[in-house]
């Protein structure tokens, strides 16, 4: 959407731009042209080296103070050259003191965050409106590589999320053995988290991990687990383990089932839940919700038994 926040000229919100559009265009090499339409005015800056414009925006006049800037865009190769500054300066001069509204939202390929874009608009002197929220700002990714479920990838991912104060969750995919990474936030936030994860895993294992967008839609759900929910789920997992090839009857530790407090700690760490008055609460993506309700198993090696059959293992008296 925009290049960067280091434009050559940054006016304060309550003062006019110190340079006229002509002087600004001369300084930056950007000449802003206008074209009137029935619905408003189109502003463009041409790129002399290509057949495409370096940037454009549209000013919609709804009467009174109802002026809106729509579709502000700067081509990737022209970002950081003051194109957006030149266009918005010309729009503000033409508005003759009327309030100019604009929505701030970072596009997928923008090098700036939504907050940085909003700050830039405010310094230009525009009235910033919050963009309409989309149904899900979250994206899911799948991670593959040598034994990604067994090298602490999920915990490392959660540590990175905590460090960057980002909502997200790493979930084992019981069908493929891969790990799914669910991250809430804009494009730059997700990119920053994934970059940190790749670096951390390379330093830890010496191997590279492969990250690709998952086909699944990352929808989140609020969950709440009582002590009985936790005990039931832990019983299912323990009984499945006892029937699996991983169980070694000669190992005394294999027959020991975690206590309720230990099980709580396991689920809090695995699903990033918190203890709220004795109940575990939080928000998790669909795949994690199915694992917490016992609809699916959390690991591929547990898939020798169907989830519905595993539930029948329980014979807990009420």
Write a brief caption for the model.
This protein has 318 residues and is of the alpha+beta class.
Report what the structure shows.
This protein has 318 residues and is of the alpha+beta class. It folds into three domains: 110 residues, Aminopeptidase (3-Layer(aba) Sandwich), CATH 3.40.630.30; 76 residues, 2-Layer Sandwich (Alpha-Beta Plaits), CATH 3.30.70; 92 residues, no CATH class. Helices cover 32% and strands 24% of the residues. It is built from nine helices and 13 strands. The strands form three sheets. The protein has a six-stranded mixed beta sheet. The chain has a four-stranded antiparallel beta sheet with strand order 8-9-7-10, covered by helices on one side. Strand 1 and strand 2 form a beta hairpin. Helix 1 runs antiparallel to helix 2 and helix 6 packs across helix 7. The longest helix is centred in the middle third of the chain and has 19 residues. It is elongated, with a radius of gyration of 27 Å. The protein starts with 20 loop residues before the first helix and ends in a 7-residue tail after the last helix. The N terminus is likely disordered.
How many domain regions? 3
- Name the CATH class of the largest domain: Alpha Beta
CATH architecture of the largest domain: 3-Layer(aba) Sandwich
Q: What is the overall number of helices?
A: 9
CATH fold-level topology of the largest domain = Aminopeptidase
Largest sheet: 6 strands, mixed
Mean pLDDT: 79
The neighbouring-strand order within the major sheet is 1-2-3-4-5-6
Helix share bin: 25-40%
Residue ranges: pLDDT <50 for 5 or more in a row? Answer: 1-28
Tell me the overall shape.
elongated
Radius of gyration: 27 Å
Through-space gap between termini: 59 Å
Q: Which structural class best describes the helix and strand composition?
A: alpha+beta
Sheet-strand content, in percent, reads 15-25%
Report the order of strands and helices: HEEEEHEHEEHEEHEEHHEEHH
CATH superfamily of the largest domain: Gcn5-related N-acetyltransferase (GNAT)
Would you report the number of β strands?
13
């Amino acid at each position: 959407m925009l290049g960067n926040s280091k434009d050559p000229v940054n006016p304060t919100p309550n003062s006019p731009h110190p340079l006229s559009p002509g002087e600004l265009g001369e300084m930056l090499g950007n000449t802003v042209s206008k074209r009137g339409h029935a619905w408003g005015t189109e502003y463009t800056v041409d790129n002399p080296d290509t057949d495409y414009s370096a940037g454009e925006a549209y000013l919609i006049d709804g009467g009174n103070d109802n002026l809106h800037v729509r579709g502000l865009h700067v081509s990737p190769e022209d970002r950081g050259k003051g194109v957006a500054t030149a266009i918005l300066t010309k729009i503000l001069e033409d508005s003759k003191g009327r309030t100019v509204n604009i929505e701030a939202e970072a596009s997928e390929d923008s090098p700036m965050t939504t907050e940085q874009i909003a700050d830039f608009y405010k310094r230009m002197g525009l009235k910033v409106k919050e963009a309409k929220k989309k149904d899900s700002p979250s994206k899911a990714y799948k991670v593959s590589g040598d034994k990604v479920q067994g090298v602490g990838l999920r915990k490392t991912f959660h540590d990175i999320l905590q460090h960057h104060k980002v909502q997200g969750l790493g979930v084992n995919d019981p069908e493929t053995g891969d790990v799914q990474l669910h991250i809430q936030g804009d494009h730059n936030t997700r990119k920053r988290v994934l970059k940190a994860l790749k670096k951390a895993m390379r330093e830890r294992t010496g191997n590279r991990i492969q990250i690709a967008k998952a086909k699944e839609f990352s929808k989140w759900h609020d969950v709440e687990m009582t002590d009985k929910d936790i005990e039931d789920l832990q019983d299912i997992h323990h009984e499945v383990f006892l029937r699996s090839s991983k169980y070694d009857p000669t190992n005394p530790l294999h027959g020991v089932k975690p206590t309720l407090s230990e099980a709580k700690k396991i689920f809090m760490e695995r699903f990033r839940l918190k203890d709220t008055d004795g109940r575990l609460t939080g928000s998790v993506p669909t795949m994690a919700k199915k694992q917490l309700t016992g609809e699916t198993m959390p690991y591929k090696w547990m898939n020798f038994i169907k989830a519905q059959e595993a539930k029948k293992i329980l014979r807990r008296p009420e």
